[in-house]
Amino acid sequence: xxxxxxxxxxxxxxxxxxxxxxNYPGATVMDEAEGKASSAVVRAQxxxxxxxxxxxxxxxxxxxxxxxxxxxxxVLGVSSGTAALIVAMKALGIGIGDKVIVPAITFLATxxxxxCCNAVPVFADVDDSLNLDAASLENVYDDxxxxxxxxxxxxxxxxxxxxxxxxxxxxxxxxxxxxxxCGVKYKGNYAGTIGDIGAFSFQxxxxxxxxxxxxxxxxxxxxxxxxxxxxxxxxxxEKERFGFPDVDEAERAFxxxxxxxxxxxxxxxxxxxxxxxxxxxVMRDRKQQIVDELTRVLPSIRFRGVIDAAGDTGSSxxxxxxxxxxxxxxxxxxxAEQIESFILYGGQPVYKIPQIWRQRTADKHNFPFNYPYRxxxxxxxxxxxxxxxxxxxxxxxxxxxxxxxxxxxxxxxGVVKVYKAYRIGTA
Length: 427
Ligand SMILES: *Cc1c(COP(=O)(O)O)cnc(C)c1O
Prior knowledge:
The structure is a single chain. The strands form three sheets. Strands 1-9-8-5-4-2-3 form a seven-stranded mixed β-sheet, sandwiched between helices. The protein is of the alpha/beta class. The protein has helices spanning 25-28, 32-43, 58-69, 81-91, 109-116, 137-140, 160-169, 221-231, 249-252, 263-297, 324-336, 354-357, 385-391, 405-421, and strands at 74-78, 99-103, 120-124, 145-150, 173-177, 185-186, 189-190, 197-201, 214-218, 302-303, 316-320, 394-398. The protein binds pyridoxal-5'-phosphate (PLP). Pyridoxal-5'-phosphate binds at residues 80-82, 106-107, 109-110, 151, 177, 179-180, 201, 203, 214. One of its GO terms (molecular function) is transaminase activity. Keywords: Aminotransferase, Pyridoxal phosphate, Transferase. This is DegT/DnrJ/EryC1/StrS family aminotransferase.
C-alpha cells in the first residue's frame, strides 16, 4: 500500500468494489424456516393468538422459548418495542405527575413512550460507553422520579450494578429498553432480565425481526399480570397458564388497550429466535477481527468505551474521532469506499430532537409537559455534556452477520485508508 492511497471520494479506487450486505441482521437471514412457520398459521386460518379454528400457539411458544432460555418466568409478546415500553410503564403504574429518567442517547421511542404514559422524561448523562452513567443520576433525581429506563445502545452492555443500587436506594423501578441489544450480557446475565422489566423490539432494524413486534419480560407475577391486562383491554385470558386461576376479575380488571402480538409475528419470531446465537457469534468474531487489524496499523486509534466486552453482541463498532468535523468527513469518505458507517441520531442527544426539545405533544396545551411539577422539567444546551460531546464524534460501523472475513478485512483497510488520509489515529 502507498503511504497514503487516494481516497475514493477524491477519485481513487474504493476499498471495496461491491456494497456490503444491508444492515438488517434478522431480515437478511430469513429463509424457508420463517416461510414455513408463517404458512402454517395461514393454513390453520388462525392468525389471532387467543382463538380461532386451529390456533397454533406460535406467540405462546415464542414467549415460552425466550423465558426458558433466559431463565425468566414471565414473557409477553406485544405489537412493537414502543408498545413494550408503554406496557412496562403501565404495569409499574407510572402516570400523571411522574418523571422517568431516560439516557441522553437513545431513540425517540424511549422518551416518547414515557410521554404516552402521561409522565415526563428527564435526561441523565452517559459514560464512555455512550450508555447511562449511574454517576449522573443524582443530577436529575428528585422525589417526582418513579423509574429509570436504561438503553444498551447498539449491542453493548450498560454498567447496571451502580444503577440498580441507586434505584433500590430510592425505590425506583428499572426498565431495560433492549430494543437494540437482544442478547447483550452484563456480568454473565442477559440484559432485559436484570431490572424490573425488560422491553424488546423486533422491528426491521433490530437483531431479530418480524418487521414489527416487541416483548416484555419480568420476574414479577404482579407486573406480568398488569402487563397482560394493559396489553389486552384489561382482560386476563389464559389465567391457568401461569397459575392465576382464582383471580377475581371484577376486583382486578382495569382499562387497557390493544398491544397484542399476532400469530404471524409469533411464528416468524420462533424461527428468528433460533438464529440469534449464531448471528452473535459471527458478529463478535468479525468485530474482533476488525478491531485487531485496526489497532495493529493505527497505534492511537480510539474506540467507544466498553463496560463488559464479553457481553457485547458485536452488532456495531464505535470509532471515537477527535471532533465532529473529522467524524463527518470520515463518514463521507467511508461511504465512497463502499463501507457502511453512520453517525447515530444525527450526532444529537435525544433531547435536542425538536419534538422533545420543544416539549410538543398531540394533546391540549402539550400535556403532560405542562404538568405543574414541583421542580420544573427544562431541557437545555449542555444539560448532558458527555453525551453532547461523544455522540457527534462517534462513527459507527455496522457489523452484519453475513460479513465474511474478507469483508471484515476490507472494512479495516477502508478505515485505515481514511484515517491515514486525514491523519487520525496515526500519531
Ligand atoms: C427501535 C427502538 C425502540 C422502538 O421499537 P419499535 O418496535 O420500533 O416501536 C425503542 N427503543 C429503542 C432504543 C429503539 O432502538
